[in-house]
Amino acid sequence: MVDEYLASNKPTFLITIDTEGDDLWSAPRQITTRNALFLPRFQALCEQYHLLPTWLTNHEMVQDPLYREFAQDLLLRDQGEIGMHLHAWNSPPLNCSLTGDDMRHHPYLIEYPEEIMAEKVRVLTASLEDSFNRKMVSHRAGRWAFDQRYARILVEHGYQVDCSVTPHTSWQKTLGDPNGAGGSDYRHFPERCYFMDLQAIHRPGESDLLQVPVSIRRGASFAASAMLQRWESRGTIAALGVRVIRRLWPETRWLRPNGRNLSSMRTILDEILARREPYAELMLHSSELMPDGSPTFRTARQIDALYDDLEQLFAVAADRFIGRTLAGFYSHVQQLFPDKTKRETLFR
């Protein structure tokens, strides 16, 4: 059924924006939200190409009056969606410090006790719904950290879509709590969307929570991977060699602009079309849309170059895909699969 549908219909193009404070990679003690000033330019570009971004919004952004005005306008005009993005270290309640200095270490939500996890989800969901008078149904976890408990909490609060999975990628070497086990390991998760098994979130199940992984493909050749493993085993003296190998032969290819990967992103779109996959999902951070808001785009010239790449990519997307929000894509999938008993074969 799905193959027949995709043979005669365009796939969906999703744009997901982690909407958060400025340059959080530097772990600022005081979080600012100046990037709210720069979001209308991106929204206008999306509208020019009839694409519908989903702004996955965290605590500090929903507190920003300029951002609230921006978001309320796009919702009134039905030109996008507001979803939820939760950073555990500064999202209320703040009565449980996990590390003694959570603002420095940025612990993962899944490292907190489950009752704290649930309360943080409840409070931010209520804040977003009160601010925008819309039910929150779409979500991405802060720092990509997700597990079965988190999935069940989202379902309890009425969420329909999650997009936290990054296929072929492990975050276990990226610590939150310095005494913790690192982030989530998604190396054996599907590339395509699926309704999640809430007892084992790496596999399809019968829940109503749709997982929509970011569009990520394998990158490095076998020879490059073997070379990387040899260099990594040599310790810190090989750090430069490891960086060179990863720059020349990245282990994964993301549908995420970095200023030098336009050709790779276009190839991902070509692959999705050739394989008749149901969607492409691009991701960015809101602070990457302003100069000096991220380690990737430091100057106004780099921001302009980013927009040049986005225009070329969006032109392809507008011609060969249909723009939808995450909520819109969920409704689309529900129409394709009204019978829950047939979902486990979703888009295989």
Task: Describe what you observe in this structure.
By secondary structure, this protein is α/β, with parallel strands linked by helices. It folds into 2 domains: 2-215 and 255-345, Glycoside hydrolase/deacetylase (TIM Barrel), CATH 3.20.20.370; 219-254, no CATH class. The protein is 38% helix and 15% strand. It has 12 helices and 12 strands. It has helices spanning 2-8, 39-48, 59-62, 65-76, 102-105, 114-132, 148-156, 222-232, 239-248, 262-274, 300-320, 326-336; strands spanning 12-19, 53-57, 81-86, 138-141, 161-162, 194-197, 200-204, 210-211, 216-218, 252-254, 279-285, 322-323. The strands form 2 sheets. Strands 1, 2, 3, 4, 5, 6, 7, 8, 11 and 12 form a 10-stranded mixed sheet that branches. Strands 9-10 form a two-stranded antiparallel ribbon. Helix 6 runs parallel beside helix 7, helix 8 (222-232) runs antiparallel to helix 9 and helix 10 (262-274) packs parallel to helix 11 (300-320). The chain is globular, with a radius of gyration of 20 Å. The termini are close together. The model is unreliable at 221-226 and 241-246 (pLDDT under 50).
